[in-house]
Amino acid sequence: MALSSSLAGKIALITGGTSGIGLVTARELARQGATVVLVGRDADKAERARASIQTAVGPEALVQVKCYDLSLLRNVRALAEEMQQEHSQLDILVNNAGIMPGVLHITDEGNELSWATNHLAPYALTNLLLPLLDAAGKARVVTVSSIAHWVGEIEPSRETRNSPDKYSWLTAYADSKLANILFTKELAYRLDLTGITANCLHPGMVDTGLIRTDTSPVMKGLWWAARPLMISPEQGAQTTLYLATSPDVANVSGRYFSNRQPARCSSRADSPIEASRLWKISAEETGIE
């Protein structure tokens, strides 16, 4: 398929862009002419992702690679600083990076891994990049959530989240996915008078690299049993791409989507009080308002 120019001159940053939904998203945005900034943890994997995009799209594809482990807030800050040094605007931000640890893991900054990667990183990165998003005039923030948010709740403190006695891989993941929706809704509310929109989505049950190598045997077993029912990353990326590029949603903000359509979310996810409470918790834990 030939390179399009529909996104020529646009800058798009995709976290978790080295595989799965993120890689498909990066490839298709590059195919539409955007300059794609692909963020991943592993340098070799990121370079292979960049090469695969250029093979699929052509040597004219504009792809930059940034290697950061976004479970650490210091790396989120470093990425944001690098983006501000290298770019004068950001048109599309896709908060795609996600993880389901399976076992309790606390980062060296004191945060449970799925909470740090799936929520604190998008919260911090988006807020730190707001000047670049605002400079674009019209910009879009797309955050990948999950239907798992239905069983999530926002714990009041880091101590509760980090407690070995209370940890569950499923609830930890679900809590972070609920946070994605609440963050999106509060962000949209705060950006109401700007040219920046914020939306989130459930991509479907996608066969990706979400499961880590140190995941519990039970969790691995459930994942493999469900694989025949899963969709491909190409299918899973369609709603992300729709929210990032479609003129149909150019002025839509603060919504949760599935299958390229507005979808119903849980009552918790739809609560302005919960969204405001989460924002305060996130600001305290990241030091970023």
Automatic annotation (TrEMBL):
It comes from the Bacteria. Keywords: Oxidoreductase. SUPFAM superfamilies: NAD(P)-binding Rossmann-fold domains. One of its GO terms (molecular function) is oxidoreductase activity. It holds the Pfam family adh_short. Gene3D superfamilies: NAD(P)-binding Rossmann-like Domain. CDD domains: retinol-DH_like_SDR_c_like (cd05327). InterPro entries: NAD(P)-bd_dom_sf, SDR_fam. Belongs to the short-chain dehydrogenases/reductases (SDR) family. This is SDR family oxidoreductase. It comes from Hymenobacter taeanensis.
